[in-house]
Each structure stands twice: as C-alpha cells, then as structure tokens.
Amino acid sequence: MTATVDPGRWHARLAELAADYQVPGTSLAFLHDGEVHEFAAGVLNVATGVPATTDSLFQIGSITKVWTATQIMLLAERGELTLDTPVSRVLPEFKVADAEVTETVTIRHLLSHTSGIDGDLFLDTGRGDDCIEKYVAACADLAQNHPLGATQSYCNSGFIIAGRVVERLTGKVWDAALREQIIEPLGLTHTWTLPEDVLRFRAAMGHMDGAPAPVWGLMRSCGPAGLVSARAADVVAFARAHFDSDGGLLTRPQALWEPQVDIPNPHTVGRQWGIGWILDEWQGHRVISHGGNTIGQAAMLWAIPDTGTAVCVLANGGHTAAFQHALATELFGELLGLAVPPQLGPPAEPYETDVERYAGVYERASTHMELTARDGRLALHMEATGALAGVQPPLDFDLLAVDDTTFVGRPDGQPDWLSAVFYRLADGTPYIHLGVRATPKVA
Prior knowledge:
Elements: H1 7-20, E1 25-32, E2 35-42, E3 58-59, H2 64-77, H3 87-90, H4 99-104, H5 107-111, H6 131-138, H7 156-170, H8 174-183, E4 191-192, H9 195-198, E5 207-208, E6 211-212, H10 223-226, E7 229-230, H11 232-240, E8 261-262, E9 272-273, E10 278-282, E11 285-293, E12 298-304, E13 309-315, H12 320-336, E14 360-364, E15 367-374, E16 377-384, E17 395-401, E18 406-409, E19 418-424, E20 430-434, E21 437-440
Domain Beta-lactamase-related: 13-326
Pfam families: Beta-lactamase
Protein name: CubicO group peptidase (Beta-lactamase class C family)
C-alpha cells in the first residue's frame, strides 16, 4: 500500500511536531514512489532567528559511519582488501592495548561494532591532514570492553581506524577520499565535512536545554565516525544509492545489509548490525537505518529497500529521539501502511523478578555504573570517566523490570524510556547492554 503525498499537510505537520518536541529547527526529506519530497521548519539558531530551509546543512553525526563503511566496500570491490583482512595488514603500525586483538582484529569487526575496542575515545589531534593518523596512534592504550567478536558494543574508535584504512589505500586524506568515492559520483552538492566548507551554506547550530550549544561541531579527528554535514535530500540520495547496483556506487550494496551480529538489546536501535547499517524488520519488510547525535544536533535515516522508500530527518535540539519516533510512526504509516514498533516502556502491571542478582558495579574504559537494588527495582548511577569526565553530567534513575533480563528507565525531564538488557557472554561473564554499548560487571 502506498499513498499520495500531500505537501501542504507535511509542511504544516513537520512544524507542529517540532513544536510538540521543542525542536528549534528541522529538515525532512523522503523518497517515495521515485520522487523526493523536502520540508523544513523552525530556525537554525534561536539566537539569530535564521529560518531552516530544505537546503540547510545539519550535522548527521554517526550516519557518517555508513558512508565510511561504503568507502571500505568500494575498496573491497576493487580487490584492495576484504572484510576479513586484519587491520594490521593494512596498517602495520596499528596497536591497541591487547596484543592479540592488535594482530587479529579485522575490518569486519570494525564495521560491525564487534571489535570490543573501547569506542569512546574523543581526542582532538588538531586540524591538520594528519589528524586521523595521530588519532590511530593514540589508540595504542585502548582497552577492551569485551573479547574480540564476543558481542556487540558501539565503537566510534573502530570507524576512525577504518577511516585511516581508507587513507592508506587511497593515498588521500579521509575527507578527500569521501568526496572522490561518494560525494562527487552521486552529485551531492550540499554534503561537506569541514566547517570552512559548511559555513558557505545555511548551517544549523546545535541547541542544549533550548540555548545554542557552546561548541558548533566535533573535532576533525572524529571525521570517519561522525563529521558529515548535509542537507536531508543529500542523505536520502546516499541511501537511494544502496537500493541496487544501478545506484552508481557499489556493484552489490546488499552486502552491507547482511547481518553480522545480533544486538543484545534489540529495543533501542534495531535487532542486528550489518556492515555499517543497523538492521530491523517491520511487518516483513527489511529496514536499514542509522542515527547520529553530535553537540545538540540529531539525525535519523531509515530506508526500506523493497519499497524504494528512504526518509531522513535532521534536527538541532529538543527531545529529538521522541520527535524522530513520532515522525516515523506517522510518516511510514501514511506512506506505506507500516506500523513502526513502539518504544519499549514499563509493563502495565509491575513485573516481579530478582533484581539483587544485577546489583553491583559495571565499568568500561569511559563509563562507570553502579546498580543498587531498592524496593524491587534497580537504582542506576552512571557517570563518564576518563576524557569525558566532567563533560557529561552523571545520570541517576530507576530501572523497572519488563521481564527477567530487560529493564527500562527514564531520566528526570526526559520523555523517552531507555532500555537495558542483562546478559552473559559465552564464558559466563555478566554484562549490561545500555545505549548500544556492552559494559561488564566488575564488582
């Protein structure tokens, strides 16, 4: 089932949804029945009042990871490497704290978030063309969140390392390789990575607590993990290029959709990870997607290849996760008659389970969590450590049982429920999976 698009209605509806979820500015583009529709609402910066337009550039954050995965697959199709090539074969200088991982971690591990390498190293290595090279050198001390290939844990660092692989094999800095491999072949006129290029266009400013963010963007060293800025229509064009081999990029784009690992907590972003893409299924339709969050900006891309439909929504603050879900629910329902799965919340009746078994300390290189059993629920205290200490405020909220292993909680003032899943690795080590990251119990 498909429906005819009413542009006037969606122009008004986007503005209404943005207001409902306190989003200062937003841009929406979607491909439906072979036609791209574009809408915008609100302002790019509440301090200047400049209106958001369909050609405005927003930061797409971690959607960039699918672009980097596509760069790697383009090189694989040329015979430069395979998904199972060890990183050390391309980058002999590469090193992490675990010597065995250093030698055996593969490209596939990086692109499916199964390397176990601590993924939250946000390190500014300068604005020079050697910034990614310097970042990879700084990975030498990165510890493991989990053993290689044992589970899935979101890893920004892995995609930056993959970006360095692109640099080594193309002989170009990552930004230039991205332009040559993807941006220019697809004719994307409003897709850039560096602020000096973005500022030539109408560019969104992130907002935090309703005010402009203190910093515009991420450091250049994070490029392959999250530095693309684009208009929504360009992101949709990128997704469209993955529907079939006529897209002008990959001979076999479906290779990126092949499931690589089950996500232990399937209630957050999807059920599985492919190569770059997050994978899910809605009423028998394969869904490939990815989201992205930067400093007060949030982006979401969904694509349903068998219907030829792709949707990108960009926002610069507010309750973005709830906004994205509300928009997707309404839009996919109207266009395709598809029901977007609801966000997981607490059960109608309290679920009784033994919460004492999950109490304790959970820790990875950049995060410390303490779980305390109290009145049949778990009280969570979570704080950033290492380089992020003092940048992100601690979080304290209760976790309510949905079943014996699944819990949900909601920080004060937030409309969204966060889900957590407790599970054990094959060797019996207990973990919590929260925020698409795996964290072991250490005490």
